[in-house]
Every structure is written in structure tokens, then in C-alpha cells.
Amino acid sequence: MPTSAVKRRTSADPKPQWDAAKVKALRFYMGLTQQMFAKRLGVRQQTVSEWEKGIYRPRGATVTLLTMIGEQVGFKYEGDKK
Length: 82
Known about the structure:
Layout: H1 20-30, H2 34-41, H3 45-53, H4 61-73
């Protein structure tokens, strides 16, 4: 793939915020169970459940991973102007 076709995120690009509704929406968009989604992210199913209930929010590298996966599958999250 030519490097010109790859969109790189810069420090000026805002990081999407992953709240409970957006995590669940991405999982549903991908057609995955919590268990399958957790395995893809490298976290426990209970963690995904806690995110979706709003008990905790994804943070750190998981936010980056959710953003990358969302972009790969064409998921539109808040802040996406397309």
C-alpha cells in the first residue's frame, strides 16, 4: 500500500472519547459478542462489560486500539466529520 494512502494520526488530531455507548456501538457494528470483542482487544470479557455499563472507561493504549479498529472497519465516532 502506498504511504500516501495511509492516513496518519498526528498530535493535532483529537483522540476520540470512548464512552459506554460508543464501545457498545462499535462492538455491535462489528457483529461481535463481548467475549469475541474482548479477545480481539486483549482484555477480559468482564472489562468490556464494565465499559459498556459505564463503570469504567477505556484508557491508555486501549483507546488507541479502539480508535484503530474503528477506523479499519469504517465505524464513525464523534468528531469524525465524514
